[in-house]
Structures are given as C-alpha cells and as structure tokens.
Design a protein that fits this description.
The strands form 2 sheets. The protein has a 6-stranded mixed sheet, sandwiched between helices. A 4-stranded antiparallel sheet has the order 2-1-4-5, covered by helices on one side. About 45% of the residues lie in helices and about 15% in strands. It is an alpha/beta fold. It contains 15 helices and 10 strands.
Length: about 425
C-alpha cells in the first residue's frame, strides 16, 4: 500500500513538472527550469508577475527542507524535535500565503477565474497539466507585460572621448539579483567641460549613486569614461587619485586635531615619495583654502557643523583632484552655512576643476551651478538621462520654475510625482541628436 502511494506521489510530481515545463514555455521562460526543485518556484513567480513572492518561496522551501531533515534526525518527543516541528509549522503559514499570491497571479496572467486557485492548492500537478497541455490555456494579450517596448529607446548617441574634461559613454550598468539581470543604468552620454560646477538631480532610486560609482570606476559599467587624456577604467590605479569623492557621512575621528586629520589624509592620497616640506606646504594650502587655518590645532569634536563639512571636503581635496564629487555636502547645514559651502565649491570649479554635487535642497544654490544632470527611472525602473545642460535652459526644457518642480515632474506617480520621466528621456535624446525637442 505504501509503495503504491509513493509511486502515485512520484507520478504526480513528474506530471506536475511536465505541466509546468509547458506553462513556462507559454510564458516565454525556459521550460527545463521546471525540473529544478527550487528554481521552478521562482519561475512560477516570474510567470505570475510575482517575482518577490517567488524568491520568498524559494527561501521558505529551503528552510522547510532543513526543518524536515531536523525532525528526521532528532528523537521524537525531544525538545530539538519539537523545535524543528514548530519551525516547520511557522514556515507553512507564509509559504501558503505567498503560494496563494502566485496562484492568483497566474490566473490573472492567463485570464482565468481565480476559482482555479482551489485546484492549484489541492492538486497542483493536475492544474499544471491542464494549463500546460490544453491549447485554450494561453497568456492574455500583452503578456508578459514586458515594458521594454514602452521604455524609451536607446538614443544611439556618443560623445567625443578626446574632448577635454570628463567624457561619459555609459551603454549600461547591470547587476544580477537572484538569477535575474537587472539593468540599473542605460544610455547615458555627456561631456562635462573643465571649470564646471554640475548639479546631479534625481529622485530616490533613480540611479544617482550608481551613476557616480560608474563614472569613478568604483563599480564598473559597460562604458568608456575618460578624464582628460586618461581612461578611468583602464588606468584606474592612477586615476583614482585624480578623482575626489566626499560621501554624505563624515569619515573623521573626533579625537584627532584638524591638522592631524588632514595630514593622515595626505599620507594616503599624496605620492609616497613627495618631500615632507612639499607635503606640509600642500596641507597648509588646503587648510587656507577651506578656512580651517584658525582651527588647525582644534579637536574635530570641537568644530562646528560647517567646519566639519569643510574638513571632510579638504581630506579629499588634498590630492588636488581634477574631478571632485560630493554627496549632499550641505546635509545638516542651515541656509547660510550651506550657501557659503557651495560658494567655496564654485571657487574650486573656477580653478579649472569639474565638481559634481548631489543635494536635496538644490533651489537655494541653483544659481551657482553651470549645468544640471537629471537622472530618472524609465518605465523599466532603469536609470536614464532625462537632461544634461545649462541650469537656465533646464527650466524651459521641463517647463518648470524650480529644480524641485523638475524633480516632481520626473518622479513616478506612485512616488507622488507626475510620472513624465519617459517623455523627457525621449525629448532630451531628440534634442541631443539635433532633432526636435
């Protein structure tokens, strides 16, 4: 009797896998993934447009298998056995919930009544067989709801890599997340001249940090980035000292003096063979540039917020970089202090540097910038270039009166914005190509 039950269970499992193979094929996925136990749950989630639920089920089923093994190893009635059994029951609750969500999603994707969920729960093998082999069970029109065709097309633009300044040609930046390749950035091309102070604008998750990491070579993309005559990726070990990056958080020790802090930064970022008197001269020069000479003997903990920010910037500026990037340098500063800080960045740009800044309060200092880079998420949630050019022209391009309004226009509707990012990506591509904006 037990052998017969085991054989029937094995047959049902086999029929279920074959049915899922056919379903995955109908959904444009690889059918043989149904043969791999955990992977087939993830693929079911993809077919149902419930990818996150599919990932969760994979993890839950792994946990369930571990709990099954534990209950088999421990003596029945022991505390270890009881704990394992309890874990098994706890896992069953979210597993059932996520499975229901996937079954509902499959019904929607195939245009079938949600009553089919009952059969999916009671006899998945039978349901999979029916949906897989009956010709009438097909995905609805427009499936797999792939929004690639709706996303702005690739512009085909490229900038001259031999032009002076910073030249950026990013084809794409991808990341693999749980068996799926996600495109984080795509089709970003620009040349930033020397002496320009540039605002980097974009909503949360639009790809600003990813863009900066790709530009600096910290996280390489499929791209060619040149700074002057040098290729940032190919000559990274040399170029990383010509690029300064100031993060939002201050990376300074409060127990050190200002001079000691800057001296330590100099020892890391300046050539090891630099003569000590030249090193001291550079330290004193940077202290003077950022107005820190009067407090050079003070402990960092005793500095004001503005002084501490200037010290953080000075630490990166010590190597005299050609490209200077700052992530929210005005965070925590009032309007007057922030204005003074950005005026200092304006001076640095005027000395022949390229300075790129992220700030969440752009309008109070927008007049100090030359250009603005606007990065926005397209319909595929991929970071795209919605605009790059002079600040003054950006207002007319977007039809807005402030940077905040521009940001709202490109934010998606679910984020409280106007959801017009795709329109502006297309508009800018046409403008950059010399067509009608």
């Amino acid at each position: 009797m037990m052998d017969r039950i085991g054989a029937l269970s094995l047959l049902a499992e086999l029929l279920g896998m074959i049915g899922l193979w056919r379903i995955f094929t109908k959904c444009g996925r690889k059918g043989w993934h149904s043969l791999i136990p955990f992977l087939r749950r993830y693929e079911q989630g993809i077919c149902a447009r419930k990818e996150s639920e599919g990932r969760a089920i994979v993890l839950l089923e792994i946990g369930m298998q571990a709990a099954f093994v534990a209950t088999a190893l421990f003596k029945r009635g022991s505390w270890q056995y009881l704990v394992s059994a309890m874990v098994l029951l706890i896992i069953l609750i979210p597993l059932t919930i996520f499975s229901l969500r996937i079954y509902f999603g499959l019904c929607d994707s195939f245009g079938r009544s949600r009553l089919w969920v009952i059969l999916w729960l009671l006899a998945e093998w039978l349901c999979a067989g029916i949906w897989g082999f009956v010709p009438g069970f097909r995905t609805i029109e427009g499936y797999p709801f792939d929004e690639e065709s709706a996303a702005p097309e690739v512009s085909g633009l490229e900038v001259d890599l031999t032009a002076p300044g910073l030249s950026i040609n990013i084809d794409r930046r991808t990341a693999v997340n749980f068996l799926k390749t996600k495109v984080l950035l795509k089709d970003i091309h620009m040349n930033i001249p020397l002496g320009h102070l540039v605002l980097l604008l974009g909503g949360s998750g639009a790809g600003k940090t990813t863009f900066l990491n790709a530009v600096t070579g910290y996280e390489k993309a499929k791209a060619v980035i040149t700074l002057g005559d040098s290729n940032v990726y190919k000559e990274y070990n040399k170029m990383k000292y010509d690029i300064g990056f100031v993060p939002q958080q201050d990376l300074v020790r409060g127990s050190d003096t200002v001079y000691r802090t800057l001296s330590d930064a100099a020892s890391l970022r300046l050539p090891a063979d630099m003569k000590s008197e030249v090193r001291r001269s550079r330290i004193n020069e940077v202290l003077d540039i950022f107005g820190l000479t009067p407090v050079k003997s003070s402990l960092v903990d005793k500095l004001s917020g503005g002084q501490r920010k200037r010290l953080s910037i000075a630490m990166e500026y010590i190597s005299d970089p050609s490209l200077f990037i700052l992530d929210e340098p005005d965070s925590g500063l009032d309007g007057v202090m922030a204005r003074a800080l950005f005026e200092k960045l304006r001076d640095i740009a005027d000395s022949g540097k390229i300075v790129i800044v992220i700030t969440h309060t752009p309008d109070r200092v927008a007049d100090l910038f030359d250009d603005v880079i606007v990065v926005a998420k397209d319909v595929r949630r991929t970071g795209r270039l919605a605009y790059y050019g002079p600040i003054k022209e950006a207002y007319s391009f977007f039809g807005k009166n402030s940077m905040e309004e521009i940001l709202m226009s490109i934010n998606r509707r679910e984020e409280g914005g106007e959801g017009r990012a795709d329109d502006f990506v297309r508009k800018y591509a046409a403008l950059a190509a010399g067509g009608e904006a």
